[in-house]
Sequence to fold (224 residues):
Amino acid sequence: MKVSVIVFPGSNCDLDVKWAFEVCCNADVSMVWHTEKSLPESDVVVLPGGFSYGDYLRSGAMAAKSPIMGSVVEFASSGGLVLGICNGFQILTEAHLLPGVLLPNVSTKFICRPCKIRIEQIDTPFTFLYKQGEVVNFPIAHHEGLFYLDDTSLAKLEESGCVTLRYLNNPNGSLNAIAGITNASKNVLGLMPHPERVVHPLVGGQDGVRFFKGINEWVKEIRR
Ligand SMILES: NC(=O)CC[C@H](N)C(=O)O
Fold:
């Protein structure tokens, strides 16, 4: 499986997610600097966590205008798998690949801790190795994690089964405790928690292993 991780000035989870793909599924991972205009051959494109452009203006707003994003949008539109973790989720909403916006946490504090997350949808390339309703531990680390959407669009998002992950104890005040969503065709996932931080017992857990293994199996299935 070929994975491209987009690196923005201020990304800081780029190497963690590269390692997660390597350790979980022996993936071939390329790091792609944001000023590139085209993607290498890819099965999956990842927008990693961090503080792209120092979170100036709004988290993800400037990164969404980076030269590489034209190719990322094209890749997503053609059905390619796109994964945005934390700052990557913020970039996906700013690029309008996903609906809604991530606002400052209701506490106005940066929150960094383990978090219980319920898997709400398993009919996605990212979550199908989990059980429906399973509760996992994925850490969170963000200041702007409050997922917000207008009432009508939120109802539509829920009805269409695009709410993929939900917090058990809503740490940031997200509407409907939403932690992760997909687009309608479910090839684009954005989530605030960090599955790449729980892929080895040495780093505090393994609940993220099936997330990355699942992506790999999904890609291999498509290729077959
Ligand atoms: N870990 C991250 O990706 C941080 C996301 C973002 N910069 C925030 O603080 O909300």
In short: The mean pLDDT is 97. The pocket of glutamine is lined by residues 49-51, 55, 59, 86-87, 141-145 (CB under 6 Å). Residues 9 and 53 are 6 Å apart (CA to CA). The longest strand covers residues 2-7.
